Amino acid sequence: MSAYFAFARSSFHSQLAYRNEVWANIFGKLVQVFARVAIWQAAYAGIGGIVVDGVSLQQMVTYALLGGAVMGATRPERIIGEIGRSLKTGDIAVWLLKPLSYPLYLFANECGSFGYRLMTQVIPTVTFTALFYGMLPPASLFDGLMFVAFWALSFTLLFLMSALFGLIAFWLMTSFSLDWILGALLQLFSGLLVPFWFFPEPLATVARHLPFAWVVYYPNAVYLGRLSTAEVWLHLGLGLAWAALFLIGVLWLWRCASTRITVQGG
Fold first, then answer.
1. Interval 34-67: pLDDT, tens
2. Which of 52, 70, 178, 202 gives a 20 to 30 Å CA spacing to 94?
């Protein structure tokens, strides 16, 4: 376990070498958040009300800020790209000789990067925009604590999805477009752009049951108090079930990929 902690720490410190990139990333995050908030302000102004379907404008502003925070600290394209580069250079074969798990290495590496982005990008961005626009507190202490739990689940699920898509590159021999496909699915079905309570039926019902919903929609819905206590526990359990399913898929694909490398490499 100490080896994986070392990988996480190394990933965190390696990000510090690119300090100029911090300001560029913060600026980029600010532009994205300002754009999302401006869209909802324009939408509510066009309707001529401050409450739509029981959702206030301030709740939507908070939703947009939280959506950027939840998604901003995790980079699926980075995980998929890491697998693609290792496959292209042949470094992936070295992991067959190490008494370590490649999926766990990827997870530790992403944890280090997550911590770096959280401190240098997400927290400053959310703090600045919250002071500028105003941000609602959690609906209750319970909702605030459960938001943290759902955020951790969101990070785990997003990593497992990215690893699963990345491992598919062993059969395609390239990770090209895999990150784009996952990104498109997340944009549409995670609730990042539009929360599901504004989706038409039956699309809303379908989207609520897809694993992508636990990446953005459910953490934000919990924070805003849109779910009852029973629903919070129910969806936490369902999210953990999705995570377990993706974990099994990642481990199975890595085992198949390892066999494929061994056969092709001799």
1. 888 888 888 777 776 677 667 788 888 888 888 8
2. 178
Q: For the residues of 38-79, what is the DSSP string, one character each?
A: HHHHHHHHHHT-SEETTEEHHHHHHHHHHHHHHHHT--HHHH
Q: Which of 105, 100, 114, 115 is nearest to 82 (CA)?
A: 105
The Cβ of residue 159 has, within 10 Å, a number of other Cβ atoms equal to 23
User: What helix, strand, coil percent values describe the chain, rounded to 5?
Assistant: 80, 0, 20
- Asked if 193 and 60 touch (Cβ cutoff 8 Å), the reply is no
Enter the pTM of the model: 0.87
Longest dimension (CA), the chain: 68
Angle at 151 between CA 170 and CA 158, to 5 degrees: 10
Nearest to 64 by CA among 84, 42, 89, 40: 40
Taking CB atoms within 8 Å and a gap of at least 24, the contacts of 180-188 are 182/76, 182/80, 183/76, 183/77, 185/212, 186/71, 186/76, 186/158, 186/212, 186/215, 186/216, 188/212
C-alpha 72/C-alpha 115 separation (Å) is 11
What pLDDT digit, counting tens, does each position of 72-81 carry? Answer: 677 788 888 8
**Cis peptide leading into 202, omega within 30 of 0?**
yes
> Token pair for residue 43?
């939408």
Summarised one tens digit per residue, pLDDT across range 33-42 is 788 888 888 8
